[in-house]
Write a structure and sequence with these properties.
Layout: H1 2-35, H2 46-59, E1 63-66, E2 69-72, H3 73-131, E3 136-144, H4 157-172, E4 177-179, E5 182-187, H5 193-204, E6 210-218, H6 223-236, E7 241-245, H7 246-252, E8 260-270, E9 273-282
Parallel strand pairs: 6-7
Antiparallel strand pairs: 1-2, 3-5, 3-6, 4-5, 7-9, 8-9
Helix pairs in contact: 1-3, 2-3, 4-5
């Protein structure tokens, strides 16, 4: 469209130059006729000039005498026709510019609409991609609280773990597996994780003689990476918190309801990589 409008404007500018040139030639042709001059070179333009002079004659073919010369009206009206033609071309040029600006604005509007539509489709695709991630695991590791760790308290860690797992299995209706010195609970609906978190927050707020390391990890289809990520999170030993990595915190944002908030625990160096840990918090 830019090339088309450029061609039209260039053509109109050229026609404006031609019309001005023809006005000058008409004046010279008129002078030649009045003075009976022998300008043979101007006869080259005579066919074109004769057309406009003939058009002027249709308006008025009379004349008047002045200083011994006959001034024919047809030349005057031919000049008027050329001037009118010049302004028609000029206004056509202005109209073309206006139309070009309107088309450019329309193009910008359409482009913005297309970009919005494209961005919305990307956003929806991203939402669909995230909401498709439903499986997740929760690791629970335990240690006897320091104030109960001396021999006089006689806290049996295995017995306390059994009590904890009994409570969790009754509430969550799932059985754990042993993992990294603790226990792994597997779930299949991340959208309802708030109900599961409620149980684990009750565990943290209990009067048990244990400190808990609770880590949440989504299962997005890359078992090796997720296993390494969960291991890194366990090694950070965030006791009495429900911790997670940034990908799990990001996935939580796409749940329709959020009974809990998330807070960053910090950035940590793991080998050559930097990991970002978060925690679930009560709001």
């Amino acid at each position: 469209m830019t090339k088309v409008f450029g061609f039209i404007k260039s053509s109109l500018q050229f026609l404006k130059i031609i019309s001005v040139f023809l006005m000058l030639m008409l004046l010279l042709y008129w002078i030649k006729d009045l003075a009976a001059l022998n300008w043979g070179w101007i006869d080259f333009f005579a066919p074109v000039l004769s057309f406009f002079i003939g058009a002027g004659a249709l308006i008025s073919d009379s004349s008047f005498d002045l200083w011994g010369a006959s001034f024919e009206h047809k030349y005057f009206f031919a000049l008027i026709i050329l001037i009118v033609l010049y302004y028609i071309i000029h206004f056509a040029y202005i109209g073309t510019e206006t139309l070009e600006e309107a088309c450019n604005e329309g193009h910008k509007v359409i482009k913005r609409m297309e970009e919005k539509k494209f961005n919305d489709s990307l956003k929806q695709a991203h939402i669909d991609e995230q909401t498709a991630i439903k499986k997740y695991r929760i690791y629970v590791g335990t240690n006897v609280k320091k104030k109960f760790s001396h021999l006089d308290c006689n806290v049996n860690l295995e017995e306390q773990n059994n009590v904890m797992n009994k409570f969790l299995m009754e509430k969550l209706m799932t059985t754990p597996s042993v993992y990294e010195g603790g226990f792994i609970y597997s779930f299949s609906d991340f959208n309802s994780i708030d109900n599961v978190l409620e149980v684990f927050f009750k565990l943290l707020n209990s009067n048990a003689s244990l400190d808990y390391t609770i880590c949440v990890q989504i299962c997005a289809g890359n078992p090796e990476a997720e296993k390494a990520q969960l291991k890194s999170l366990i090694d950070l030993k965030f006791e009495n918190k429900i911790s997670m990595m940034s990908d799990t915190a990001f996935r939580y944002k796409f749940n329709k309801s959020h009974r809990y908030g998330t807070s960053q625990l910090g950035m940590f160096q793991k080998g050559n990589d930097t990991v970002e840990a978060h925690e679930f918090i009560v709001i």
